[in-house]
């Protein structure tokens, strides 16, 4: 059974081998070798091969006779064909020999007629081709001479007139094929010249702008009193434009010159003969390229390209350098490039028909104006030098006037200058703050000694001093104020001049200029000068003499405020009575400074008194001595001496200030001595200590009674020591004197009434009364011990 299945499987494999492509029998053979009967399979394969060989042999034997017969017939046909070929060759040779003469005659006749026809045709065609050749020769000459506009005209005539008449010739075809190439060459060459022109004016725009600004500056200096026309002709601009328009309207030639450079070589001329900005530029590449593209029917392409490139150049021109704010030259270069750019655009606008229009130029200017204003705001904010800001302002004004002469609106630039006015004012305030502080630091805070009339006139010319009594004095004499006053007054005037310089050429009315100057001056007075005076008053190690001199200085500066008003009125020609006119706040500023100095005097004087009082060393348990043997305490002698010398300096102060300082000092002494008695650490006081305190108090009352400062009525200054005197009397008279007349009733003892009336005491205050009660115990205890 297994052998039958094996035989069937081998039979199937053989059929598969016979019917399958040899490339795919690999898996089949693998199945044979994977089995165990591959020897039997090889036997069957050999048998199958032998069978096929027998079948092939039978088939060959069957068809062999027919093949042999066919070969025999083919050999017979070859012999007959060779005979026929020999006969044909012989016949052809005889025919050629017989017709040779006739053929020669026919050929001669044919050649003659062809020559006649060709000659006639050539004559006709040459008559049509000679103009083409002449026109092409002219075209080549124009191309070599770089006269591209007439070359383009010749090319148009050659293409549309001459070549169609000439016909289809090879040279015509070559010319026709070259015409688009020549047209493209002319177009590319014109565009190359335009690119060179654009690159050249981009590089030289600062030179063009510098020339235009110089011309505008010269025009403004010559015609400062004449109103400028909206669009003045600069230099030889009118003649240049007329020539450009005239030549651009021509038909047969290239517009303007054939120079390719965009910038002409112009030698430096004197200021009296500054060349016009357009005289520096050769615009012929623009006109030439415009006409060429118009002839080519590509005017729109050219206009779009020109405007696109100029917009890109505008963005480059309007991009300021990062360090532009460091020097004025950076701003000048920036403005020159912008002016140069718009001078070129303005010239193109008025010398070409439609290459750029008014709307395009205005749109470009609006874009430029916004970027210019933004750049100036940004870079000017970094500037902290008022001189540079002032130079920048003048440069912006000149820049605006130049472009305004070409018809560009510049109101935004003047609005920005008004904004910069605030920044300029802040920078001025910072500089003058430093100046005032330097003056204060260098001042010696002492009256100015004057030894000659010349010196006196010198100081009075710097500061409006009006003191008839001082003028009557003989030399040498002293001015009441220190060096700070004339220097500060001169600096105030310098500040006003600096503000006025910025307001020039801004097209402002006198009222507006006056208002700006007054507001800036008020800021200088109320903020800068006030802070400097406060700095001088509050700084450490300021003596009373310096504070007194500050008060005297501020008093004279306050009196000079109306002279500042007159000074501003004279330079602005605006009377101070004008409605809505800003008033100067100098009076209030100097009053505040003086009040601060007065307060500082009171504080410093009290602090100095405290320093002396710290030296007080009372022996509260000292033994009683006779009144004749006691002397004033050393610290109090030094204190009184100090006060007398100090108040002698107060003679130049206003009376109320000196009186207030003196009263404040006396009250402070009285209060401080009272505090010594009320000190919690003082638990017992002897009679000897009270007598010593009484001697010191008498010295204080003697000082007050002597009137160290003039102006007190009667014994007003003694009231500062009244409370202390009550305490002293009460303690010296004993416990029964603790009750004053205000505490005695009609039924009181005669001793109480007499004691109260003889002492002439004021009703004691509550702290004094408490102090008395505190010491009753001590006095009573002392009496018992006695």
Structure description:
The chain has 786 residues and is an all-alpha fold. It is 72% helix and 1% strand. It has 26 helices and two strands. The chain has helices at 2-19, 26-34, 38-144, 148-166, 170-203, 205-222, 237-248, 284-295, 299-318, 328-351, 358-380, 386-405, 411-442, 453-462, 468-472, 484-503, 510-538, 544-559, 561-572, 586-613, 634-649, 655-677, 687-705, 722-733, 750-759, 766-785; strands spanning 448-450, 477-479. A two-stranded antiparallel sheet has the order 1-2. The longest helix is centred in the N-terminal third of the chain and has 107 residues, at 38-144. The N and C termini lie far apart (166 Å). The model is unreliable at 225-272 and 735-786 (pLDDT under 50). Residues 412-727 form the Exocyst complex subunit EXOC6/Sec15 C-terminal domain.
The share of residues in helices is: over 70%
Strand content: under 5%
Rg over C-alpha atoms, rounded to the nearest angstrom? 61 Å
End-to-end separation in angstroms reads 166 Å
Q: Give the biggest sheet.
A: 2 strands, antiparallel
Shape: elongated
Q: Structural class of the helices, strands and pairings?
A: mainly alpha
Keywords:
786 residues, mainly alpha, Tetracycline Repressor, domain 2, two-stranded antiparallel sheet, 26 helices, elongated
Give a short summary of the structure.
The protein has 786 residues and is mainly alpha-helical. The chain has helices at residues 2-19, 26-34, 38-144, 148-166, 170-203, 205-222, 237-248, 284-295, 299-318, 328-351, 358-380, 386-405, 411-442, 453-462, 468-472, 484-503, 510-538, 544-559, 561-572, 586-613, 634-649, 655-677, 687-705, 722-733, 750-759, 766-785; strands at residues 448-450, 477-479.
